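Please go through the protein record below and explain what the tokens say about the fold. Record follows.
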Amino acid sequence: MPTARRSRSIPTPADQLWAIVSDPHHLPRWWPRVERVEDVVAGAFTEVMRTRKGRVVRADFELGRRDERERTLSWTQLVEGTPFGRVLSHAETQVRLRPESEDLARAQSATEVTLELRQTLTGFFPRFGGFMVRRAAAATLEEALDGLERIGA
């Protein structure tokens, strides 16, 4: 199962970042290639993305674990019966926010953000494509952290 994880200290209070990452409507502001989010209902949403080649792609997601006190949340992509299902049998994204310091002044100025993407591949991809999928996921996570840093400043 390819897993990519990236962390970064972002000079923004955790409460402010939580308001951004916990609301799917904000995804176009920070998640790579997401142009808009539709059909946001309790526990689900649809991303409308544009690929690097300019093609529009829709992807449906369900919210998983959401713990406001711990500032963690996850969402799972619904892949069965979609074009993504040819490559993936499971894809889950997790976001964790931690104040950078126990010191109150520093905790209100910087947050350690960790993004993790776990994917289970189908077909022959697990044997040959894991490295490429992990590398692409890591690049996506880096772009997402860039986006959070940009809008959190």
Notes: Residues 3-152 form a domain with the Alpha-D-Glucose-1,6-Bisphosphate; Chain A, domain 4 fold (CATH 3.30.530.20).
